[in-house]
Amino acid sequence: MSQIAINTSQNVNINFNIASVGERMLAFIIDLLIKVAYVLIVFYLFFNVFDLGYLLAGLDQWSVMAVYIVLTFPVYIYPVVLESLMEGQTPGKKLMKIRVVKIDGYQASFGDYLIRWMFRLIDTSAAGVIGLISMIVSKNNQRLGDIASGTAVISLKNNINISHTILENINEDYIPSFPQVIALSDNDMRIIKDNYTKALRVDDRQIISKLSDKIKSILKLDIDSKKMTERQFINVVIKDYNYYTGKDS
């Protein structure tokens, strides 16, 4: 499975798996079934439950078409609205555990989702062949809408164990040292632990030092290096965060 390196706002590169063409097609089919179900329900309510079909009698073809467009309007804006509200996902994408992200690391905006939606007219033309060909030949399985908006669809299905998460084993009698860690987010802690683990693996003291300095700066801490080394400090910060947020395993 191909990967893409995305630079976060903390200037850290994180590798994500690119969603496969099959995953994207299945997500599309799920969303399509949801839209079809919506149309069937709306038409059933309009013609059978509320018996409003008589309103169309005597209307010209264009007026009837306008009524149908109004009734089915949510179907047309389904992708752009839900991706905006669900941070790059639709129900189909959520079920398939895939998401739209910006390649440059910034959060995708409504404008990005709108561009993807506008290009959907081209991508889905010729029975979707154009979009399919674009995903197959492009580097990051991007359809034309992705290329135009600078986005890609990543897979959230990662093989994760405790060493890859913010979870840390702590004893029941553990006593925390830095209550300031509650100012950090789960995402901050994931980045800290991921980079710290990688630095330890290759004994990169420069990264460990920079990471330690960055944490101290964010939390406004002044630690005596004689009492606690940089490695000890980062270890304590990780354990303290788990202690205060209840994320001990």
Automatic annotation (TrEMBL):
It is found in: Membrane. The keyword Ligase does not apply. Residues 19-150 form the RDD domain. Pfam families: RDD. It comes from the Bacteria. It is a multi-pass membrane protein. The keyword Membrane applies. Keywords: Membrane, Transmembrane, Transmembrane helix. InterPro entries: RDD. The chain crosses the membrane at residues 25-50, 62-81. GO terms for cellular component: membrane. This is RDD family protein. It comes from Chryseobacterium antibioticum.
